[in-house]
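hey so i finally got around to running the thing on that chain from the lab meeting. sorry it took forever, my laptop kept dying and i had to restart like 3 times. anyway pasting the input first so we r on the same page abt which one it is
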Amino acid sequence: MPTKIIAVANQKGGVGKTTTAVNLAACLASVGQRVLLFDLDPQANATSGVGVEKTEGHSAYRVLLGEGSLLEKIKPTAFARLELIPSEMDLCGADLDLARGENHLHRVAETLKPVIESGKFDVVFIDCPPSLGVVTLNAFAACDGLLVPLQCEYYALEGITMMNRVLTQLRDAGVNPRLQIFGVVMTMFDARTKLSNEVVSEVRNLLGDRVFETMIPRSTKLAEAPSFGKPIIHYDKYSASAAAYEVLAQEVLARLNSH
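ok and heres what got predicted. didnt touch it at all, straight out
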């Protein structure tokens, strides 16, 4: 199977985007996939979420501006088969700096080429910033599909509508003709509330089988895990949220193999 690039994105913050990127990456690595987690969010939460220090000069920032190779930026993590391109604060300036350059929407795609050609990875997950700025659009231009985490709340569908509009524009402009939503995962699900159940059925009505069967429950353990620098399956293996991400990883894997 050729390397698949999946961008994990939602322009709304606080929806479980980074949590999903980190935990899916870890779960797929735990079942034998060679995974690269590419942290493109200046907040660097995916970096600390797998226990790697934020270090000045270690992000993809300089490479995106044409200096050096992305292969040099790849760091090991404490978890087998899971490697990382870390982020740090310098990526805050990337939106402006990239916009000034030539071919500014294809910088991530170009810098990823040697990584893909190295044959070292089965899957690359890009954790995007929570916005639709130039860096996020670069991730969209580079990826095979978008994985969109949606929180079970009223405004969930507004985000997906805007995302769809942007995808259509990028496809129509020829920036990435294969761009599509790979899947939608419902996060922070609380089966006890009417609202959670209503939002899920509304999203399923609109998006059909693009919505994964597995939903990620609200969980204190899941919220605690990043402060220990561990994905949930390494922090509390027997929790409900660890089980949910493990099942979701199987769904993702099945979808990757069928695409």
